[in-house]
Amino acid sequence: MNRNLRNVALASVAGLSLVATGSALGATTGSGATFPAIAYQTWCGDSGLCSYTGVGSGSGIKALAAKTVDFAGSDVQMSDAQVATFNGDKVTYIPTLYGAISIPVNIAGVTGNKMKLDGPVLGAIFDGTINTWNDKGIAALNKGVALPAAPITVCVRSDASGTSGNFSNYLSKVSKTFKAKVSAGGQNQTPAWTAPNLQSASGNAGVANCIKSNSNAIGYVDLGDAIRSDLTTNVTAIKGNYKGAPFILPSTKSITLAGTPTKGQTAKIKAGDLKVDLTASPNKGAYPITTTTFILVRAGMPANGDVAKVLSYYLSPKAQGQLTNLGFVPLSGALRTGANKALANLG
Fold it and tell me: What is the CATH number of domain 102-257?
């Protein structure tokens, strides 16, 4: 197993006990993205300030629009249709952490992080252009690996998902066939997948289970859920998004490098726009399917003062310091500074 992945895996298992041993949960409620759910639930338990339910970004946004929760978790920006459900109320995005969308496989005999894929081939798998494991495009990247002449089972999310949004956004940047057949770009929470052997499941944990339960399967899962589902040695190395890039595994280092803002991103952050897109990062050593995730706060909600306290804890050195134990990475200085400044304007 890759040493970085092994270290994250061991720390993640140790970190699971934090949820059960935290203080009594507070009355401030949130729901949404499953991608960061283990971190939010850990922080709510430790602080006693909140509770959080992972139901998918789309469902969390619906709940905030209906005012049945005090805050929502989302890995993507809202669509125009979702924005319209807030009846003109401002929604503030507060980033909380960095994470990676890992690509585990379930192919007999192919473990130890042996698989390698680049963006064009990965996109072709998820759009159905490539649908058997011994396809020449996959074989060319994996010389010496015994690939079966078997149909590829593609595991995807069944619910409106920020993980799907970021993954399809990445694929639309790096794969011409995916862009033409599935998504022309942007963070599509419910992509119209065109792979022929498709299996869908709810939540990141559901997709992880789909991969484990189906022979010759591939899917996309946040690194933390891949680790907790014992898929660590099945995670694929993805070619970086810069000239001469090697194949890169998600790790604390490669996620951190992707989270280091480029000049253009730094300018956006300084201007108060915290919705930075990290997919297909040009940074050297960066894992290319790295994302950030957000807490959404609706203006005028009666509990926004309490939500600000929750977020202040989420952004604290103590909370951010727990992230590597859970398969994530703390925010960069620039984005974390911007997030803390935004807390002062919640209302």
Answer: 3.40.190.10
